[in-house]
Design goal:
Number of domains: 1
Structural class: alpha/beta
CATH superfamily: NAD(P)-binding Rossmann-like Domain
CATH architecture: 3-Layer(aba) Sandwich
Number of strands: 6
Largest sheet: 6 strands, parallel
Distance between the termini: 28 Å
CATH topology: Rossmann fold
Mean pLDDT: 95
Number of helices: 8
Radius of gyration: 17 Å
Strand content: 5-15%
Strand order of the largest sheet: 2-1-3-4-5-6
Helix content: 40-55%
Order of helices and strands: EHEHEHHEHEHHHE
Length: 230
């Protein structure tokens, strides 16, 4: 099947990171006019500039990855008694505030048109504990809670706001090819995944496809994790 996003203008944030690259590739293949934005979003003014530059946005893929200097996931592990305030603040600045701000900036035009879709790319870590990721999971949990509530609020305006929650998906931030080349590390992760393998970014991108098939979804956070979260 092709052309599922024909004539739709899509803004993808952090397009070069996390699930951004496979989303951009798939959406373009499906006929969308994709704006692959690579801005840094820690500055609040950036969000409004990006949205104004984009103009009409039929679909927003709010894909945000955490601070690059902390990646990959094996570098993120820390005991709950040992993390610094700056660690959580970094996740707030890179994950939570950018999502809240870009949704706030994009929603008015969608509500006015009574048409639009927002897909947050968050994480499934809030749904099942990964020891050592308490601070990261707290930030992703804030994102997911925001999606659930705002998705409920805007449903009456025919705007669908949902999220996908990847976990154990190969990507250039958390589960990098370099990290997964370590057989011991890879097998440790795979041993916890019922599907018996690490997922691919393309699989997450397929779930993020914002077609009319998602018209009856509102405020849902859908995990994609090979059975790690069911």
């Amino acid at each position: 099947m092709s052309g599922r996003l024909e004539d739709r203008r899509v803004l993808v944030t952090h397009a070069e990171r996390y699930i951004g690259p496979p989303v951009v590739e798939l959406f373009r293949r499906e006929g969308a006019d994709v704006i692959a934005d690579q801005s840094e979003y820690a500055d609040p003014s950036t969000v409004q500039e990006v949205v104004e530059r984009a103009g009409r946005i039929d679909v927003l893929v709010a894909n945000f990855a955490g601070p690059p200097h902390i990646m990959p996931v094996t570098n993120m592990l820390t005991d709950a008694t040992a993390f610094e305030d700056e660690d959580f603040e970094a996740y707030l600045q890179e994950l939570v505030w950018p999502l809240l701000r870009i949704v706030r900036a994009t929603l008015p035009q969608m509500i006015e048109r009574r048409s639009g879709k927002i897909v947050g790319v968050t994480s499934a870590t809030r749904l099942r504990a990964i020891p050592g990721l308490s601070v990261y999971s707290a930030a992703r949990g804030a994102q997911n809670a925001f999606v659930q509530v705002v998705g409920n609020e805007v449903a009456a305006h025919n705007v669908q706001f949902n999220a996908i929650g990847p976990a154990h998906i190969a990507n250039n931030m958390y589960y990098t090819s370099e990290m997964l080349e370590d057989e011991e590390v890879r097998e440790q992760f795979v041993s916890e995944i019922p599907a018996g393998r690490i997922g691919e970014g393309e699989e997450a991108a397929e779930l993020a496809l914002a077609t009319d098939a998602s018209d009856f979804l509102a405020g849902q956070v859908i995990p994609i994790s090979g059975g790690w979260v069911t």
